[in-house]
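Hi Y.,

Following your request, here is the sequence exactly as I used it, all 334 residues.
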Amino acid sequence: MLKETIMKNKIRYGIIGFGLFAERSIAPAIQASVNSELIAIQKRSIDEARKKADSLGIPYAFDSAENLVSHPDIDAVFVVSANCMHAPETIIAAKAGKHVLVEKPMAINAAEAKAMIKTCRKNKVKLMVAHMIRFSPVTQRIKELIKNDAIGKVTAVKSEFIYDGKVSHRGWLLDRKVAGGGPVFDIGVHCLDTIRFLLEDEVISVKSQLQPLPTKDKTESTAFISLKLSKGTVAGILCSYDSAIRRSYIELIGEKGLVSAENFSWNNTTIRLNVSLTSNGKVMETREEIITVPNLYEKEVTAFSDCIINDTLPPIPGEEGLKNQKVLDQIMRG
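Below is the corresponding structure, written out as tokens. Let me know if you'd prefer a different format.
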């Protein structure tokens, strides 16, 4: 199958868990990708799946992940289902020989993430976690500034991601058994992954304040997280469903300057990157860089298809998701 796919130079995808997010963001991204093709979707109702597939010009519709991955024309799946289904559906797909691109959070806990990696490795399929912010030119530019020592050693990072959870179409948002965690798993993981990616460093200490305290049935709705990384950087993350507005923000404080961006997580937009450079405690230069951000979902799909076609490592392998998951588990323990 892989040889045939390489000759075609297009990876044929099925989407598992075709809800509103998949319809609005993932399906258009696959259809727009130059090396990808969307040929199947899965919903719990076969009638609804067929109706959606017909309206979007998608050839195949299924009512279960098992049926979808059994189709021989499908090369890879994008798992976009509820968090609690990421691990079992990834494992089902891997055992059927399908490559897997899975939404964040990778899983409900680190044990599940390890099982996903092990099964994909055993079945010789590729596994990538969909942390699309890594593909943003804003993120890439911040990373370039750090590498070029423009702001000096990064001593602290502040990041937030907030929105009104009541407007979400996901009825399971606060259901602990389905979601695993509230804003920590949903949007805090974006902040966490971006910090790790930018600093190329790992978290060694975690403290968190969760409100309300999660129970076995219900998640937190707001969280503040304090992190320490191995090279000495400290970081703070605020994530919440209890906000009147939707906003994301990141700021990196260095010994020679600062860099920040509001709505760093957005795509298909223009973002202002603010840079302040200092000397002897005085601001010597302040500038605003205007950065055009493309469709990041399309970029992540294209990158995953490329690694399948060329048989290279995924840019965000399962091991990266596992590192995030271990931190998420610590956060939820408070």
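Residues 1-7 have pLDDT under 50 and may be disordered.

Thanks again,
Q.
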